[in-house]
Amino acid sequence: MNRKGKTDPKMLNNQFEEVKQLLQLNYENELSVIEQEIAERKQAELEKDITKSKEAITKLQSLDYPLIYIGSIVEWFTAGERNNILYAFTVMQDRLS
Q1: Buried b (16+ CB within 10 A) or exposed e, 36-59
Q2: Radius of gyration of the chain, Cα coordinates, nearest whole angstrom
Q3: Do the Cβ atoms of 69 and 60 come closer than 8 Å?
Q4: 3-state per-residue secondary structure call for 11-74
Q5: I need a labelling partner for 35 at 20 to 30 A (CA). Which of 10, 52, 58, 79 fits?
Q6: What pLDDT, in 10s, does the model give residues 7-56?
Q7: What distance lies between CA 4 and its chain's CA centroid?
Q8: pTM of structure
Protein backbone atom coordinates (compact mmCIF):
# COMPACT_ATOMS: atom_id res chain seq x y z
CA MET A 1 0.00 0.00 0.00
CA ASN A 2 1.17 3.48 -0.64
CA ARG A 3 0.93 6.35 1.85
CA LYS A 4 -2.61 7.13 0.80
CA GLY A 5 -3.74 3.57 1.61
CA LYS A 6 -4.10 2.45 -1.99
CA THR A 7 -2.47 -0.60 -3.46
CA ASP A 8 0.06 -0.25 -6.22
CA PRO A 9 0.05 -3.28 -8.57
CA LYS A 10 3.66 -2.73 -9.60
CA MET A 11 4.82 -2.64 -5.99
CA LEU A 12 2.80 -5.77 -5.18
CA ASN A 13 4.29 -7.58 -8.18
CA ASN A 14 7.79 -6.56 -7.12
CA GLN A 15 7.22 -7.79 -3.58
CA PHE A 16 5.73 -11.02 -4.89
CA GLU A 17 8.77 -11.56 -7.12
CA GLU A 18 11.11 -10.98 -4.17
CA VAL A 19 9.19 -13.51 -2.07
CA LYS A 20 9.31 -16.03 -4.92
CA GLN A 21 13.08 -15.59 -5.23
CA LEU A 22 13.57 -16.03 -1.48
CA LEU A 23 11.42 -19.15 -1.49
CA GLN A 24 13.35 -20.53 -4.47
CA LEU A 25 16.67 -19.92 -2.68
CA ASN A 26 15.35 -21.60 0.46
CA TYR A 27 14.13 -24.57 -1.59
CA GLU A 28 17.51 -24.92 -3.33
CA ASN A 29 19.35 -24.75 0.00
CA GLU A 30 17.12 -27.39 1.56
CA LEU A 31 17.47 -29.61 -1.51
CA SER A 32 21.25 -29.25 -1.33
CA VAL A 33 21.27 -30.26 2.33
CA ILE A 34 19.11 -33.31 1.62
CA GLU A 35 21.28 -34.37 -1.32
CA GLN A 36 24.40 -34.02 0.84
CA GLU A 37 22.85 -36.17 3.58
CA ILE A 38 21.93 -38.85 1.03
CA ALA A 39 25.45 -38.82 -0.39
CA GLU A 40 26.94 -39.14 3.10
CA ARG A 41 24.64 -42.07 3.93
CA LYS A 42 25.56 -43.83 0.68
CA GLN A 43 29.26 -43.30 1.39
CA ALA A 44 28.85 -44.68 4.92
CA GLU A 45 27.00 -47.74 3.58
CA LEU A 46 29.69 -48.28 0.95
CA GLU A 47 32.44 -48.11 3.57
CA LYS A 48 30.49 -50.53 5.76
CA ASP A 49 30.06 -52.95 2.84
CA ILE A 50 33.77 -52.74 2.02
CA THR A 51 34.66 -53.50 5.64
CA LYS A 52 32.29 -56.48 5.71
CA SER A 53 33.69 -57.76 2.41
CA LYS A 54 37.24 -57.58 3.76
CA GLU A 55 36.17 -59.42 6.91
CA ALA A 56 34.45 -62.09 4.79
CA ILE A 57 37.54 -62.55 2.61
CA THR A 58 39.73 -62.87 5.68
CA LYS A 59 37.33 -65.40 7.20
CA LEU A 60 37.16 -67.49 4.02
CA GLN A 61 40.93 -67.43 3.58
CA SER A 62 41.41 -68.69 7.14
CA LEU A 63 39.20 -71.75 6.61
CA ASP A 64 40.52 -75.12 5.51
CA TYR A 65 37.28 -75.98 3.68
CA PRO A 66 35.52 -72.76 2.70
CA LEU A 67 32.93 -74.45 0.46
CA ILE A 68 31.70 -76.62 3.34
CA TYR A 69 31.39 -73.49 5.50
CA ILE A 70 29.50 -71.63 2.78
CA GLY A 71 27.29 -74.65 2.16
CA SER A 72 26.37 -74.82 5.84
CA ILE A 73 25.43 -71.16 5.93
CA VAL A 74 23.41 -71.49 2.73
CA GLU A 75 21.47 -74.45 4.15
CA TRP A 76 20.46 -72.36 7.16
CA PHE A 77 19.04 -69.50 5.08
CA THR A 78 17.70 -71.13 1.90
CA ALA A 79 15.47 -74.03 1.03
CA GLY A 80 17.03 -76.52 -1.37
CA GLU A 81 19.36 -74.08 -3.11
CA ARG A 82 22.66 -75.29 -1.67
CA ASN A 83 23.97 -76.89 -4.85
CA ASN A 84 23.01 -73.97 -7.07
CA ILE A 85 24.60 -71.42 -4.76
CA LEU A 86 27.78 -73.44 -4.31
CA TYR A 87 28.03 -73.84 -8.06
CA ALA A 88 27.57 -70.09 -8.57
CA PHE A 89 30.19 -69.40 -5.90
CA THR A 90 32.76 -71.70 -7.49
CA VAL A 91 32.12 -70.23 -10.94
CA MET A 92 32.55 -66.69 -9.60
CA GLN A 93 35.72 -67.67 -7.71
CA ASP A 94 37.11 -69.18 -10.92
CA ARG A 95 36.37 -65.99 -12.85
CA LEU A 96 37.88 -63.76 -10.16
CA SER A 97 41.08 -65.79 -10.05
Answers
A1: eeeeeeeeeeeeeeeeeeeeeeee
A2: 30
A3: yes
A4: HHHHHHHHHHHHHHHHHHHHHHHHHHHHHHHHHHHHHHHHHHHHHHHHHHHHCCCHHHHHHHHH
A5: 52
A6: 778 888 888 999 999 999 999 999 999 999 999 999 999 999 999 999 98
A7: 58
A8: 0.52
CB-CB contact of 86 with 71 (8 Å): yes
63 touches 69 (CB < 8 A) = yes
* pLDDT tens per residue across span 43-75: 999 999 999 999 988 988 898 888 888 887 777
Give CA torsion, residues 45, 50, 51, 56, to 10 deg. Answer: 130
Distance CA 29, CA 34 (A): 9
DSSP 8-state secondary structure symbol assigned to residue 78: S
Q: What is the pLDDT of residue 97?
A: 61
